[in-house]
Amino acid sequence: MGRINFGPTLDHSRKGILSKVLLNGTIELQAWTIHTLEFHKGMSSITDWNRLTIDEKNATNIHDLNYGPQLFYAPFHIENEHSIADTYLSLDSQWTKGVAFINGFNLGRYWSIGPQRTLYIPKELLFKGFNHI
After folding, report:
1. pLDDT tens-digit profile of 7-19?
2. CA-to-CA distance for 118 and 38, rounded, in angstroms?
3. Nearest Cα residue to 116 out of 100, 104, 132, 103
């Protein structure tokens, strides 16, 4: 999670893939496909979003959300600029682990085990009209 920033093991703190990657402890994985996400351009650089529809009668497609990394996009509109104020993003237990952006600004990381349950959104990040998270 973090890095060691003091003590005798400072020079031995390593992150990432440091040796073979094994599937089920026996099969070495060697062919990798890397997908870059250009967050420096903001979320507007991603144009082919798939709409998530949840049918309450047949919620089978919601189970597809459990496999692999996902990006979600939600637009919202603020009608009155006088109603813009500091606020927060509430993260219940269904937000598992990830990073939240609002209008291209990185709000921070979250994880369902905590410690944070909310991410602060300063009013300066919100605009009258179209916003996105």
Report:
1. 777 777 777 788 8
2. 25
3. 100
Q: Does residue 94 contact residue 117 with C-beta atoms inside 8 Å?
A: no
Q: What is the DSSP letter of 29?
A: P
3-state class of 81 per DSSP?
helix
pLDDT for 119 beyond 70: yes
pTM of the model: 0.64
The rounded distance, in Å, linking the Cα atoms of 75 and 86 is 18
Positive or negative CA dihedral for 66, 39, 128, 120?
Answer: positive
In the chain, the amino acid numbered 118 is T
* 64-102 per-position pLDDT tens digit: 566 667 788 888 999 999 999 999 999 887 788 888 999
What does the alpha-carbon distance between residue 26 and residue 33 come to, in Å, rounded to a whole number? Answer: 20
Instruction: Name residue 18's beta-bridge partners.
Output: none
Output the six-digit token pair for 106: 């990185």
